[in-house]
Amino acid sequence: MDFSEDQIHRYARHIILPEIGGLGQARLLDSRVLVVGAGGLGSPVILYLAAAGIGTIGVIDDDVVELSNLQRQVLHATDRIGMAKVESAQAAVAAINPDVRVVPIKARLDRDNARAIIADFQVVADGSDNFATRFLVNDACRLEARTLVSAAILRFDGQLSTFRPGGPCYRCIYREAPPEGQIPTCSQAGVLGAIAGTMGALQATEVVKELLGIGESMAGRLLIYDALGVAFRNVRVKRDLGCPLCGDHPSITDLSGHGSTAHVCG
Ligand SMILES: [Zn+2]
Distance from the CA of 50 to the center of ligand 1, in angstroms? Predict the structure, then answer.
């Protein structure tokens, strides 16, 4: 371990934890995490991963910062309206931690680029807000054997799970995307801004746990958060032997079944 004086001070509260220590912190500094969407969930995920000293954070998003984002997307700022979200993310991270390199990917994740982008990282945090992207990320992660920590928010509710190679995948819970328009989007149904913080902080926690291999993984479990009832519920998730992606007779072996583009936002 070759920490500078500044790094020893910066990460002291991590290093003192027996589960992390100097070795764990060094591992975080060597880690590569991809965050899909620099929006409501991506904001706290990116902020906490940057503060934690995750050495390389890939951020994929093709949007620019808009005024209506700022109610929940705490990564961005009023004076960065109109700036590409990936550039805004880069500015925010640079202000927090010079140890962290952001790889800005100003693009839409699509069937042609998803596998190559995802293969370049160890763990993927999905904070996209549409089903097309969620399924694409799930399928690409499985095909590239990458761990996916997935979260979603709507109105006053949140969900979180981890999908590891060999375990159940997103399609084991939701076989395929619902028809367009059946499930309202955040812009149609609304979302309490702080829910993004709650779920995004949980997501960042699970990413760090997966990178370090500590604690109990969320793999095989789905966490459901009801903010109005102040209730957290854990539901068991099993691998579906009939899953078209990870079941016994998979019919999905590449990304050709996906649309050519999926919009990443949130
Ligand atoms: Zn599956």
Answer: 31
Integer-rounded Cα radius of gyration of the chain: 18
- Cα of 234 from ligand 1 centre, angstroms: 19
Interatomic CA distance for residues 101 and 55, integer angstroms: 6
C-alpha of residue 261 to centroid of ligand 1, in Å:
22
Q: Could you tell me the pLDDT band of residue 265, with boundaries at 50, 70 and 90?
A: very low
Q: Quickly state the pLDDT bin for 120 (edges 50, 70, 90).
A: very high
Residue pair 226/156 in contact by the 8 Å Cβ criterion: yes
Q: What angle do CA 47, 49, 50 make, to 5 degrees?
A: 65
186 catalytic per annotation: yes
Catalytic residue among 141, 169, 186, 243: 186
Q: What whole-number distance in Å separates Cα of residue 74 and Cα of residue 92?
A: 10
Amino acid sitting at position 100: V
How large is the average pLDDT for residues 97-109? Answer: 97
